[in-house]
DNA sequence: GTAGGGTTAG
């Protein structure tokens, strides 16, 4: 028969290794062996199970603990309450709180903090305030965390005045004033209500203290972007970069979105490259959402973007490489585009349309006409018929190579209805004539387009880096464009 | 040689 102490140590060890099953079976085993658990065993188990949000098991052990005449500690109740709150099970949390009071254990500021925050998060402000009052009546003194939760509660229901009052109280009552979390909470309320100057005051306070964190910057960007103040949003983005706090995927997404909204496509693409290639961050849907916007704004045909989007949504293994190949090509970063192409073609396996198209586009954009045409041939050998995207890209390759006859051939197909008239294809043909120095023929296409699609229907093109560029009348060379 | 607790955005 082992000592209780030995069991307790082993249970703790299992807990630290997250082997809860083992801990529980050891708990059962010790009782069978005739070693009765003591307070420490129970406290330890409940806290460990609560910490992993295994509330049912924790609850069972807690009940057994009380039944056997042991008195759980404040931390034990507290951990279970916190666990219920994390799971959004507020009424269960309250039950434990009541049980705790009944057992004669006085709740501390952590218990109140959990409850108040839980109610604040679910927008139950009345309840949050009620517990705050009870806490004060109970002689438990509030702290930064509780007051921050209160601000959150008021924010949830848009009570600006009350939130301000709590915030001002923190300035007086707490030493050093509100901490970053509290300020951020207030900041997000300001952002929600579009209160720029009050937000800026708080932001500047944090700057002076040097305590801005990722959330501070994110909230300020969110505010400025929402108010259409893109210059200011970008300034915050720059400041965030310089401060070394731009490190995670979501923050990158947000900063990228600011640049994209401001039309700084190339800068945005650089950030994307940094997060993907240099930092090797894993990308999420938000990243790709911005990338697809970039592609469209960068002049990639709508159908091509949709095709890449579909490949991404279907989880195609080469989707990311195809997307980056297309993006880097569209933004003029050809060396990087070539790297992506190599990823796509490395395994010599037959590809799908989206992948062949991306490779054709990338080679074409980089001026590797032979490789582009070779890829097209390979695609045909594999029995894949060119789709609308392939046609648009191919015509671009012909234009770039000065193969006017090739452009004319596709142009003819459209004119005589052998290829379905489509805006992207028209545009590709027109641009191809331009890059083959046949303005005259480009103008013909332009006229045909205005007939086919009714004048003024054409979407806008934004060019790289957000520089303004008249698309139609400018006689300057457009060689630098993708096509 | 014993006892995992609460705060801030998209």
TrEMBL record:
Residue ranges occupied by any PROP1-like PPR domain in the UniProt entry: 16-123
Claim: Metal-binding is one of the keywords in the record: no
Bias-annotated ranges (Acidic residues): 455-483
Renumbered residue ranges of the record's region Disordered: 452-483
NCBIfam families per record: PPR
The family this protein is said to belong to: Belongs to the PPR family. P subfamily.
Protein name as annotated: PROP1-like PPR domain-containing protein
Organism: Brassica campestris
Taxonomic lineage from the root: Eukaryota, Viridiplantae, Streptophyta, Embryophyta, Tracheophyta
């Amino acid at each position: 028969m082992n000592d209780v102490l030995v069991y307790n140590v082993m249970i703790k060890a299992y807990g630290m290794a997250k082997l809860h099953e083992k801990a529980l079976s050891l708990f059962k085993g010790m009782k069978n062996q005739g070693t009765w658990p003591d307070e420490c065993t129970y406290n330890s188990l409940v806290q460990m199970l609560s910490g992993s949000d295994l509330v049912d098991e924790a609850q069972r052990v807690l009940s057994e603990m009380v039944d056997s005449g042991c008195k759980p500690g404040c931390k034990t109740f507290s951990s279970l309450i916190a666990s219920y709150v994390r799971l959004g099970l507020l009424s269960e949390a309250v039950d434990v709180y009541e049980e705790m009071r009944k057992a004669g254990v006085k709740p501390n500021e952590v218990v109140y903090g959990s409850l108040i925050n839980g109610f604040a998060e679910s927008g139950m402000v009345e309840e949050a305030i009620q517990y705050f009052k009870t806490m004060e009546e109970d002689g438990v003194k509030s702290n930064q965390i509780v007051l921050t939760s209160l601000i959150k509660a008021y924010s949830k229901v848009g009570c600006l005045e009350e939130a301000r009052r709590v915030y001002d109280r923190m300035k007086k009552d707490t030493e050093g004033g509100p901490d970053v979390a509290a300020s951020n909470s207030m900041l997000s309320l300001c952002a929600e209500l579009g209160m720029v100057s009050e937000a800026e005051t708080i932001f500047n306070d944090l700057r002076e203290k040097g305590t801005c964190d990722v959330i501070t910057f994110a909230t300020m960007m969110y505010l400025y972007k929402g108010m259409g103040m893109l210059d200011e949003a970008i300034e915050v983005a720059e400041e965030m970069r310089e401060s070394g706090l731009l490190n995670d995927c979501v923050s990158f997404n947000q900063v990228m979105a600011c640049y994209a909204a401001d039309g700084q496509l190339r800068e945005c693409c650089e950030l994307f490259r940094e997060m993907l290639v240099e930092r090797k961050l894993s990308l999420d849907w938000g990243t790709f959402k911005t990338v697809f916007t970039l592609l469209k704004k960068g002049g990639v045909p709508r159908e091509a973007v949709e095709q890449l989007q579909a490949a991404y949504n279907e989880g195609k293994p080469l989707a990311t490489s195809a997307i980056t190949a297309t993006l880097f090509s569209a933004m003029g970063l050809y060396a990087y585009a070539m790297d992506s192409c190599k990823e796509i073609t490395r395994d010599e396996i037959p590809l799908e349309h989206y992948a062949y198209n991306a490779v054709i586009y990338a080679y074409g954009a980089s001026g590797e006409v032979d490789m582009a045409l070779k890829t097209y041939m390979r695609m045909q050998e594999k029995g894949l018929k060119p789709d609308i995207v392939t046609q648009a890209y191919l015509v671009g390759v012909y234009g770039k190579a000065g193969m006017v006859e090739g452009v004319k051939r596709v142009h003819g197909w459209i004119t005589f209805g052998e290829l379905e008239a489509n805006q992207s294809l028209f545009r590709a043909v027109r641009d191809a004539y331009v890059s083959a120095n046949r303005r005259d023929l480009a103008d013909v296409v332009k006229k045909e387009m205005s007939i086919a699609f009714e004048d003024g229907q054409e979407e806008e093109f934004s060019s790289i880096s957000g520089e303004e560029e008249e698309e139609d009348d400018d006689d300057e060379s457009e060689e630098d464009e993708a096509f």
